[in-house]
Amino acid sequence: DIQMTQSPSTLSASMGDTVTITCRASQGISSWLAWYQQKPGKAPKLLIYKASTLEDGVPSRFSGSGSGTEFTLTISSLQPDDFATYYCQQYHSFHTFGQGTKLEIK
Amino acid sequence: QVQLQESGPGLVKPSETLSLTCAVSGFPISSGYYWGWVRQPPGKGLEWIGGIYHTGDTYNNPTLKSRVTLSVDTSKNQFSLKLRSLTATDTAVYYCVRLRGTGSYSFWGQGTLVTVSS
After folding, report:
1. Within 13 Å of residue B89, how many CA atoms lie on the same side as its CB?
2. A97 CA: distance to closest CA in chain B (Å)
3. To 5 degrees, how large is the angle CA A8–CA B102–CA B41?
4. Mutate which of B1, B38, B46, B52 to test chain A, going by most A C-beta atoms within 10 A?
C-alpha cells in the first residue's frame, strides 16, 4: 500500500496570505497526484491533477508542484472561499488519500 | 454538464448487504471513462472503494475487494455498488464519481449517508 501523509493537519492563515500544504508518499508515485478541496457537508472538488495541472475553472491562485514522493499545494492571496479542508490523492498504484489539511481563518 | 446522483437506503443492519445506485445525466456512460465510488466516515477522511468501465472492467480497493461488487447498466445510464457483510465501520457518506482516466475524480455526486446499525 502507498501511504500519503499531509502536513500540517491544521493551518491558520489570514485573507491575502500565501499558504503551502505538503503531501508525502511512502514510495515514488511519479506525478500521479491530485488535490481536492472540501467544504463542510459538500462533496470534494478536484483542484489539480497530475501534480500540477489545474482543473478547468479552478482559479490560478491554486498551484501544485512536485514529483516522486514530495508534493505541494500552494494557494496564493487567500480568499474567503478558500477556507476548507484539502486532500491529496495518489493514483500511481490503486488510490489512497492523505488525511487532510484543514485551512482555518486566523 | 455531467451530473451524478446516488440513491439507496440510509440505514442498513450489520451483516447485511448495501446496494447503492448512481444515476448519470449529461453524459452517456457507454462513451467511456471509469465510474466509481468513494466513501467518507463521519468526521474522517476519504477512502476509494473502486471503479468500473462501461465494458464492465473493474478496478477495486484491495482492502475491500472481497466484499465489493460493481456493475454498470448502460441502458439506464447508471452504475451500482454492492457492499457485503456490513459492520459499523462501513458507516459513511458514499459518493459516486467519474474518474479522469483511472486516476483523479473530476465529477462527484452529492453523497448519501449510509448508517450501519441494528
Report:
1. 3
2. 6
3. 45
4. B46
User: Taking a C-beta distance cutoff of 8 angstroms, is the pair A49, A62 a contact?
Assistant: no
Interface test with A, best of B59, B94, B104, B107 (most A CBs within 10 A): B104
Task: Give burial (CB, 10 Å; 0-12/13-18/19+) of B66.
Answer: exposed
Cβ–Cβ of A44/B105 closer than 8 Å?
Answer: yes
Written as tens digits, the pLDDT of chain A (106 aa) is 999 999 999 999 999 999 999 999 999 999 999 999 999 999 999 999 999 999 999 999 999 999 999 999 999 999 999 999 999 999 999 999 999 999 999 9
CA-CA distance, B9 to B1, in Å (whole number)?
27
> What is the identity of the amino acid at A62?
F
Query: Considering all CA atoms of chain A, what is the largest pairwise distance in Å, rounded to the nearest integer?
Result: 38
Closest-CA distance, B46 to chain A, in angstroms, reads 6
Q: What are the distances in angstroms from CA A99 to CA A24, B44, B100, B103?
A: 11, 8, 22, 18
B22 and B6 in contact (C-beta within 8 Å)?
yes
Beta bridge partners of B100: none
Whether chain A has a CB inside 8 Å of the CB on B50: the answer is no
Q: Does B5 touch chain A if contact means CB atoms closer than 8 Å?
A: no
